[in-house]
Design brief:
Length: 402
């Protein structure tokens, strides 16, 4: 990774693309970090109070920002603007003159109140701009304009209802999966709009909402309900359509078996010496195994009780049977196969980019920026001189670090 003081790396598939990032917290910053990882020049513009994720710790990094902030803001340049001030909005418009993409996750209507509405102000002035709005529910509909938060959407959209066990009841998924996937959804929409612009010459508005994203995660549960009329319930780690597809106890910990067809089931039985199981009509097909999943579990756990999980999983995977140890987060990153997914440079720690392009691979940019770290650099590029920058600081349009 480049040093934190260096400009973001501009190699990669998105070299030459400039992104103005007005987003905060997770979905928007994750989206723009992925764009930065592949070469985009991302200018992060924070409000006077800063991105609230900077304070969501401990733990904190050596620069005083929360580790949470560092997870989704590398490779960006930072500026702070008070957009409630007319001169702050003028500066934003000046920066958009050379921008390809704008990403924001304000409450719907905020940009309109600032006279920065896409349809009436930005699109006529910047016809090539790709404008991405991320919100909880969008601007219209019964819930339009309301704030959205990952866990609330997990609850509202049925995700919690299928996650957990009878003892726990409906349970929040342990990662902010709705925020995370919304970031990917927003990035996909931006890239599609940029691709279309290459032919038409015109930008467009892209919308990604937590609500629609959360509902899209209900595969296969929603389809099962739509076709059967039966509401899905809690299955713990099991799958509603496949068996055995669940976690099981070995001598030294848990493993997960993901056996999805009869061939894999027969191989599994042969490796574990479960020959009677392989020839039992109750387990001859996936539908039969689903109908007898309880007795199947008893037989499998009896066979696994004396086995060590790492050796067992390696043996099964090499035989074509999907199986993996249930690892902790440290164990996950200690796997040799994860060596290039753990980033470390100076005081920065992070997760590597999940996608690799063979010819234009890109690379993670510099460490996450300090609050307003690149103010002079960005505004000088926009044509402002030292005297005007100083005056804007004095007036509060360029806020000082909170």
């Amino acid at each position: 990774m480049p040093d934190a003081s260096e400009a973001p790396c501009r190699q990669g598939a998105l070299a030459g693309v400039r992104v103005i990032d007005l987003s905060r917290v997770l979905a928007g910053p994750l989206c723009t970090q992925m764009l930065a990882d592949h070469g985009a020049d991302v200018i992060k513009i924070e409000p006077p109070a800063g991105d609230e994720t900077r304070g969501l710790g401990p733990p904190f990094t050596a620069t005083g920002d929360a580790a949470y902030f560092s997870a989704v803001n590398r490779g960006k340049r930072a500026l702070a603007l008070d957009l409630a001030h007319p001169e702050g909005r003028e500066l934003l418009l000046a920066l958009l003159e050379n921008a390809d993409v704008l990403v924001e996750n304000f409450l719907p209507g905020t940009m309109d109140r600032w006279q920065l509405d896409y349809e009436t102000v930005l699109r006529p002035r910047f016809p090539r701009l790709v404008y991405c709005a991320i919100s909880g529910f969008g601007a219209s509909g019964p819930l339009g304009g309301l704030p959205g938060y990952d866990a609330i959407l997990q609850a509202m959209c049925g995700l919690m209802s299928v996650n957990g066990e009878a003892q726990s009841g409906p349970t929040r998924i342990g990662v902010p999966i709705v925020d995370h996937l919304t970031g990917y959804t927003a990035m996909s929409g931006i890239l599609m709009a940029l691709l279309e612009r290459a032919g038409s010459g015109r930008g467009q508005r892209v919308e990604a909402t937590l609500f629609r994203t959360a509902l899209s995660l209900l595969v296969p549960h929603a389809a099962n309900w739509m076709h059967s009329g039966k509401a899905p319930g809690l299955l713990g780690s099991a799958h509603p359509n496949i068996a055995p597809y669940d976690k099981f106890a070995c001598r030294d910990g848990l493993v997960f078996l993901g056996i999805v067809n009869d061939r894999q089931f027969r191989r599994f039985c042969e490796r574990l010496g479960l020959h009677a199981l392989k020839d039992d009509a109750r387990y001859a097909s996936n539908a039969a195994r689903l109908a007898h999943r309880d007795s199947l579990r008893v037989a499998i756990e009896s066979a696994l009780a004396t086995r060590e999980r790492q050796a067992l999983c390696q043996e099964l995977m090499r035989a074509g049977v999907p199986a993996g140890p249930v690892n902790t987060v440290p164990e996950a990153f200690e796997q040799a196969h994860a060596a290039d997914m753990r980033l470390h440079a100076q005081d920065y720690h992070g997760i590597g980019p999940p996608v690799a392009l063979a010819r234009t691979p890109g690379q993670p940019g510099g460490a996450p920026p300090r609050y307003a770290q690149h103010t002079e650099e960005i505004l000088t590029e926009a044509g402002l001189g030292p005297e005007r920058i100083a005056r804007l600081r004095d007036s509060g349009v360029l806020p000082r670090a909170p």
